[in-house]
Each structure stands twice: as C-alpha cells, then as structure tokens.
Amino acid sequence: MAGTLAEKVWADHVVRRGENGEPDLLYIDLQLLHEVTSPQAFDGLRQEGREPRRIDQTLATEDHNTPTIDIDKPIADITSRTQIDTLRRNAEEFGVRIHSLGDKDQGIVHVVGPQLGLTMPGITVVCGDSHTSTHGAFGALAFGIGTSEVEHVLATQTLPLTPFKTMAVTVTGSLKPGVTAKDIILAVIAKIGTGGGAGYVLEYRGEAIRELSMEGRMTICNMSIEAGARAGMIAPDETTFEYVKGRPHAPQGKDWDEAVEYWRTLRTDDDATFDAEVVIDADELEPFVTWGTNPGQGLPLSAAVPAPEDFVDETDRYAAERALEYMDLVPGTALKDIKVDTVFMGSCTNGRIEDLRAFASVLEGRTKHPDVRVLVVPGSARVRLQAEQEGLDKVFLDFGAEWRQAGCSMCLGMNPDQLAPGERAASTSNRNFEGRQGKGGRTHLVSPVVAAATAVRGTLSSPSDLLTHA
Amino acid sequence: MEAFTTHTGIGVPLRRSNVDTDQIIPAVYLKRVTKTGFDDGLFHAWRTNDPEFVLNKPAYAQGSVLVAGPDFGTGSSREHAVWALRDYGFKAVLSTRFAEIFRGNSGKQGLVAGILAQDDIEQLWKILEETPGTEVTVDLENRQVSAGDSTFRFEIDDYTRWRLMEGLDDIGLTLRHEEDITAFEQKRPSWMPKTLPARTADTH
Ligand code: SF4
C-alpha cells in the first residue's frame, strides 16, 4: 500500500498493533534527556523498583538551566543547581551517558543528538521537550513527550500511541538571497496558525526544502510544534546522508551502505495521500518577523504593525489587541522602525554552526548599534569550538557582541540570561510568548541574518537594508 | 496504580470554565525534582488570595470529586497539574470538556476524567452548593455519577476505563508485552543508534 514518510517510519516501529481502540505500541530508538523533565521519571523508576531497559539508547545533557558564563564556578541559582545535580546523580545511579557542563559534547539536547550522529533517518526519537521535532529534519519520527512518558520509555523503550494524521507542507520555488529557512517556517505558522498543525505530522517537501542544508531543515522542523503539530519531517536525501556520514555514532563500512539503502526507501510514495496539504511559494517570501506574542503573529519585515480591526476572526482580533498592548506597539508603525534593545543569537532553532556563520557574515566589517546588547550563545560546546576554529568568535567580539558558553540561555530565561521588564529583543529562538525570555520582556522572532542586521541598525532590519543605508 | 471501580467522596463544585494548568499549579512548582507533594501548589493563587474559593470552605476542603466547568486543564502540558490534584486527594474530575493532554495525563496517574453534559454539571453544582459536603459516587464500571437522589451518565473512553479499572499504569500494561518488545529488538539492524559505548569526535 502506498504510504507517506511518516506512515512508513511508524509502520517500521510497531511492536504490537492495538486492537479494539487500544493504541499501537511503538518502539523508541533514541531517548534524549535533560535536567528539567527527567527527575520525576527517574523517581518513578525508583519507586517501582524498575530499571531502564536500554541505557544504550539513552543520552542526557544539561542545557536548560546551565549558565553561559563562569561555567567553572558552582551554579548560583539553587533550584537550577538542584535540577542539574539531580540529573547527574540519576545518570550515575542508572548508568546513563551524560554530557555535563564543561564537557565538549554538552549542549542543547536537539543540537547534540544530530551532532553525535545519533539522530538518523527513519528512527524514532523522543525527549521530554516539545522541540524534539527538530530531529525530524533527518526523516526521523521525533516528538516531545510528558514526564510519565519519559518514565515509560526508560522502563520499556516503547510508547503506546494512536497514529497521527499527516499534512504535506509543500514549499515550491527557491528562496531569494537573504531569505532563510526561518522565514519559511514563520510564514508557514502565520499561514496555518498556532493550532493549524494539531494532531498532524507535517511533512515539508518541495524544491525549496530540497535546496536547504541540514541546519536549515532542522530550523524548520524545530518549529513544527509552534504550529501545534506533533512532529515535522523531511525525507532524507544526499544532503542528509552527507551530514550524517563520518559522525561519531554514524554507521560505518558495510553498515553504512546497508543503512543508506534503507534510508533511500524513506520517502512518501507518489500515490500516497495526505490528510491535509498547504502550499507556500518560496519565490514570494521575504524576511519574516513576529510582531505579537505567539509565533503565528508574524509578517514580512517590510509590512507595518497590524491593527486589531484587520482580523476578521473575533478570537484573532482579541489576541491581536492583547499582543499589541503587551508588545507596546502602535498599529501602522513600520516593522522596520521598531527599536530593539537586545539581539539574542542562539537556541535549538538557530544555534548551529551554519547559523553562526550566517550571523557573522552580516556583522563582519560593521559596527554594532551603540544601544543594542548582543548575546551570541552557541547551541553546543562543539559549535562553540568550531566557531572559534573558524575565527567567528573574533568577528563577534570585534563587533561588540558577548560570546557565551553553550545552552538554552535566553531562549527561555531559566538561567540568568533574561530580558528586563519592558526590554525588547530580536531573537533567533522559537517562542515569543509573554515573559518567555524574562518577565515583561518583549520578543520578535527573526532569522540569524535579520538578527545581525538589526544589531547593526538598532531597529528590526534585513541585510538588504544595510546596503541601501550604508 | 490503585484499581478504580467506584469511589465515594465529597463533591466540590468549581464554577469556572477554562481552568488552565497554570491556574491548577503555577510554574514555580516546575522547578521541583520530586513526583509527590504537589498538593500545596494546587490552585495556589485562589487558595491563598480568595477566601470565597470553594476549597477554602471547610465543608469542601476534604473533597475528592471535582465538578468543573468546560475546558478544564488547558494550556501548558505540565503533568504537575494532575500530580497536584492527585496529591490533594482528588480521585475524579468531572467536566463537559477537557484539554486533550490533561485528559491523557490524568489517565496515566489514575485520576478519572469523566465527561458530562453541561445540564448535568449544572445540576451537580446545585446539589453540591445547596448541601455542602454532599458525597458523590463515581461508578466507573457503569459510567455513572450519583449525588443525592440524582444519577448521571458520564463518558470516558473504553481503553482508559479498562486500564483504570484494572489499576494498570501504562508501564505495567506495556510490560505485559515484554516478549513482543524483545522480539522486536532482535530484528533491529545493528547499525541503529547506540549511545554506548560513548564515542565523540575526538576518539572517533
Ligand atoms: S533552546 Fe529553547 S526551545 Fe530549544 S530546548 Fe532549549 S529552551 Fe527549549
């Protein structure tokens, strides 16, 4: 029977088909853990006297609470320190591999998995974190789970699940220079809404997707959850194989050939059908930016702040009204006139080496706007090392940016990297919720190159504005 | 997980709709590392600031069946919301509509989330408010709720009902199929990802 990519990966992981309304039992190839959503899961194992089934398919890293400066000193915040100490103790007790602060493989869980070559096409990946959808960029079925489910996977390496629906997100044409993967996904979310993907696995396809690097594909899949989707996927191709090949945990030799042969079968059959489909034309896309307090409230950068009356739907109108108040924006203001206090470059959406390169390429030879604070936080310790090898750190420091250690940092402000009340940020992260980056902080989601141009001009800007306003 | 067939306990009328998980338990409690002891966080803002809040009235304070308005448990997926209700002593929550994730989390923790028609919820509220401290019986086997002389039907999906009645937590249930899991594992290709022994870019 013809199938979609998601259906094929699902079918290959069914341990047991559910009967009479029971869910299917799905095998999980890889579970990633971090300090925030795992303590109660380990506690549950202990209470029931259970052992993890496959510690060799489990990996822990510290990211959400970790500081990005003075990492050799004890963590000042007591609750953060407790969560991290608890993860370390649990990892030791149960024999789970952990990459702690200061370790070269430490970093944001969704950056570390792909980097080690653990994330591969056609596998199932879970983590107690909604942005697990990132790993779908490899053609893996990857989704966030709750703490009970983390415990469930630790104990059984499976999850009972009812199949997801499928949605094709076809991106035709090619991106113009200065327009990136981030702009595609912000445009997709603006189009289908923050609930538009609920219950679905989104499969991104079409020329524009094929032309993207793995980093770009990860940026897109990462934000599938912001459209409410369970997961996002992209069929693996030569770009994928190239990225995986030679990584520490990638298959080697004969195994590699066997794996690639299987991976090539992981594509939606031509006669397969999706439950829904949306089409986006990449040729038409411009740099995108959010103006509101959910990732669906976005517009092309050349547009103006909308008025609540622009929205037909009453809920949208009310949401816009509240968002404008929180964001302190006046309808009609050109988005490019919005002044920004902080630029945050990092997160599991845009904290990879290619993102840092793109950011640096815009900064190079330019000077920072004096009123802007710029924080560059690599997604992992390896990304940081790589950037330093390439001399990107020098570009950042010369520009006047702060060059930090790896972690989630200001993406969610669980560590000291936070916006002050009323402060406004252009951020390469994924959530512009009220208070997400610090109590009272205001967030505009942008791509790395828009973040860079904004750091130069002090107002939301695209790289092309630097040419005309040079 | 304890098996649930019938439970009788004091009913608590919560005349509010759209009670989101932030209201059930505020975010500060997410920093804890334990799985129990979340009862102090339950409805924290209302319990500390609102003397009229239903659980602040002695007649309801020992309640174990919550009767809430529509859209209970929306917002953040935090499982702590269910832990807080459970730790406080609630065995069942009744509403006309639950957020999907909250309902899923409830089933995993042995908390019955029963769906009733709005008219029936209104009637229950009336009974519980007219005679504070009235006991409510939740009969899972027959999917019935009774209070005073009235009996109502509630909905719960077959699979969750069966699991709750058997007292099977998901893990225990899955472990019944351990042989299937082992058989599946034996068929997996050897090149599937393995985190151990650890390899890094330096040792590779
Ligand atoms: S970078 Fe942000 S979105 Fe990604 S895992 Fe960390 S907190 Fe979550």
TrEMBL record, chain A:
[4Fe-4S] cluster binds at C348, C408, C411. One of its GO terms (biological process) is L-leucine biosynthetic process. GO terms for molecular function: 3-isopropylmalate dehydratase activity; 4 iron, 4 sulfur cluster binding; metal ion binding. It catalyses: (2R,3S)-3-isopropylmalate = (2S)-2-isopropylmalate. Binds 1 [4Fe-4S] cluster per subunit. Pathway: Amino-acid biosynthesis; L-leucine biosynthesis; L-leucine from 3-methyl-2-oxobutanoate: step 2/4. Keywords: 4Fe-4S, Amino-acid biosynthesis, Branched-chain amino acid biosynthesis, Iron, Iron-sulfur, Leucine biosynthesis, Lyase, Metal-binding. InterPro entries: 3-IsopropMal_deHydase_lsu, Acnase/IPM_dHydase_lsu_aba_1/3, Acoase/IPM_deHydtase_lsu_aba, Aconitase_4Fe-4S_BS, Aconitase_4Fe-4S_dom, IPM_dehydratase_rel_enz, IPMI_cat. CDD domains: IPMI. Belongs to the aconitase/IPM isomerase family. LeuC type 1 subfamily. Catalyzes the isomerization between 2-isopropylmalate and 3-isopropylmalate, via the formation of 2-isopropylmaleate. This is 3-isopropylmalate dehydratase large subunit. It comes from Brachybacterium paraconglomeratum. The lineage of its organism: Bacteria, Bacillati, Actinomycetota, Actinomycetes, Micrococcales. The gene is leuC.
TrEMBL record, chain B:
It comes from the Bacteria. It catalyses: (2R,3S)-3-isopropylmalate = (2S)-2-isopropylmalate. Gene3D superfamilies: Aconitase, domain 4 (3.20.19.10). GO terms for biological process: L-leucine biosynthetic process. Pathway: Amino-acid biosynthesis; L-leucine biosynthesis; L-leucine from 3-methyl-2-oxobutanoate: step 2/4. Keywords: Amino-acid biosynthesis, Branched-chain amino acid biosynthesis, Leucine biosynthesis, Lyase. One of its GO terms (molecular function) is 3-isopropylmalate dehydratase activity. It is an enzyme of class 4 (lyase). Residues 1-112 form the Aconitase A/isopropylmalate dehydratase small subunit swivel domain. SUPFAM superfamilies: LeuD/IlvD-like. Its EC number is 4.2.1.33. GO terms for cellular component: 3-isopropylmalate dehydratase complex. The keyword Amino-acid biosynthesis applies. CDD domains: IPMI_Swivel (cd01577). InterPro entries: 3-IsopropMal_deHydase_ssu, Aconitase/3IPM_dehydase_swvl, AconitaseA/IPMdHydase_ssu_swvl, IPMI_Swivel, LeuD. PANTHER family: 3-ISOPROPYLMALATE DEHYDRATASE SMALL SUBUNIT (PTHR43345:SF5), 3-ISOPROPYLMALATE DEHYDRATASE SMALL SUBUNIT 2-RELATED-RELATED (PTHR43345). Catalyzes the isomerization between 2-isopropylmalate and 3-isopropylmalate, via the formation of 2-isopropylmaleate. Belongs to the LeuD family. LeuD type 1 subfamily. Heterodimer of LeuC and LeuD. This is 3-isopropylmalate dehydratase small subunit. The gene is leuD.
